[in-house]
Amino acid sequence: MSAGPEGAGPESAGPESTGPLAGVRILEVGHMLAGPYATMMLADLGAEVTKIEPPGGDISRQVSASYFASLNRGKRSIRLDLNSEPGRARLHELVADAHALLVNLKPSAIHRLGLTYDALRPWNDRIVCVALTGYGLHGGDDPAFDYVVQAATGVAALTGEPSGPPGLPGYSAADNSSGLTAALGLLAQIVSGRGGQVDVCLRDVMLSQLNYRAAAYLNDGVVPKRLPRGAHSYYVPAQIFPTLEGHLALFITHDGFWKSFAAEAGVAGFPTMADRAARREEVLAAVTEALATDTATSWESRLRPLGVPAAAVRTLPEALAATPEMVVTAGDYRLIAGSVRIAGYHPDYGPPPGLGEHDGPDPTRTDKPS
Questions:
Q1: What average pLDDT does range 3-24 have in this prediction?
Q2: Nearest Cα residue to 26 out of 74, 88, 70
Q3: How far apart are alpha carbons 249 and 37 in whole angstroms?
Q4: What average pLDDT does range 340-348 have in this prediction?
Q5: Which residues contact 282 (CB under 8 A, 6 or more apart)?
Q6: Is the peptide bond preceding residue 86 cis, with omega within 30 degrees of 0?
Q7: Sorting pLDDT into bands at 50, 70 and 90, what band is 6?
Q8: Where along the chain is composition biased (Low complexity) (predicted)?
Q9: Least enclosed by CB within 10 Å: which of 23, 117, 124, 281?
Q10: In b/e form, how buried is each residue of 24-37, taking b as 16+ CB within 10 angstroms?
């Protein structure tokens, strides 16, 4: 088989995709969030993704139907017992005709089930195998759920008010970021034209996203700390501010932004970035006093035309109401659209698959669809 979609004619239950990844066949052995999110993004771009589920299905099916749909739209589903000889034989048939396999399991399970490149190479030496784990393919089986990884990598310690306990964001930052990274690694190796093993882990992804925080410590000895209202460590003012009604996120990163903001808000002084950083508390007091004279939404409407980065803090329902184009229909579900825009391509968001929906007649199967 080829390393890319050239000449490929993927078997599909629906019309042939015209997306940029049309003809790319990807297998997924994963559960819950990180792995399924990675492959769903690829499916949104036209790849044919076959989700290989155990006889009982991905455990995320037990969370809620909408949870499962939000991570698995547009995929195919087949059930295989990879602990059985017939299940592994069927897997090898699928591997022979696939471009990539993404696995989101504990390292011991990945090795035991033969889901590495070294194990699968005899059936397809150009397949790309991506292992998405907590601490690396050879890093052991310690539990690596999203919140645990955020705590272990310093992210939680940097989140929240200085006088309060560590905090966590209101969504799965580690899982989602790792899914994005895994999708990137998978595509990079496919583009290389070579098969091989790609190793992505949640711990390393979160540490890599602490880029400038880590660099400040490693090179200058600056230990990162929490600042009030989520303030940026370099830029001032860049944080959440209370207003007459609601809160405003203001992010002033250079003197031009400050000049425009100060003129509109009636704040005098502090003309340079260095001056504002050195006199942080004075600046914050002046800005807080100015912003208290109007509402968050009004400030947003006043500052946006000036090019000043500012946004009223919205709830999720308010944010969705403001961006109706980001809400799409996939079967019976309303979901968030993919975030990659390709000129001339409009994804046809398919529904999430029923468990074993694409099993088909297979004499090697030991667990027949009900």
A1: 57
A2: 74
A3: 29
A4: 92
A5: 270
A6: no
A7: very low
A8: 1-17
A9: 281
A10: bbbbbbbbbbbbbb
Q: Which two tokens stand for residue 138?
A: 């050879």
**Strands, E assignment, the chain:** 25-29, 48-53, 76-79, 100-103, 128-133, 196-201, 238-242, 247-251, 310-312, 327-330, 333-336
pLDDT band at 10 (very low <50, low <70, confident <90, very high): very low
Q: What percent of the chain has pLDDT over 70?
A: 93
- What's at 353, amino acid-wise? P
Q: What is the DSSP letter of 123?
A: G
**Which pair of tokens denotes residue 313?**
């803090």
Beta pairing partners, 53? 79
At residue 294, the 3 state secondary structure works out as coil
* Helix, strand, or coil (residue 103): strand
Other CB atoms closer than 10 Å to residue 16's CB: what's the count? Answer: 12
Q: Which of 4-8, 34-38, 69-73, 319-323 has the lowest mean pLDDT?
A: 4-8
**List of residues 6+ apart from 244 with CB closer than 8 A:** 291, 292, 293, 294, 295
**Count of residues making up the chain:** 370
Tokens of 86: 């017939």
Residue 101 sits at φ, ψ, to 5 deg, of -130, 125
CA torsion angle for 68, 74, 78, 81 (degrees, to 10)? -40
Residues designated as active site: 175
Token pair for 44: 């949104």
3-state helix, strand, coil in the chain (%, to 5): 40, 15, 45
- What pLDDT was estimated at residue 366? 39
Give the span between the Cα atoms of 316 and 310, in whole angstroms.
17
Tell me what pLDDT residue 13 has. Answer: 38
The more confidently predicted of residues 10 and 315 is 315
pTM here? Answer: 0.88
**Angle subtended by helix axes 255-265 and 296-303, to nearest 10:** 120
Half-sphere exposure of 257 (CA within 13 A, CB side): 16
Compute the distance between CA of residue 360 and CA of residue 229 in angstroms, rounded to an integer.
Answer: 55
Token pair, residue 19, equals 């997306």
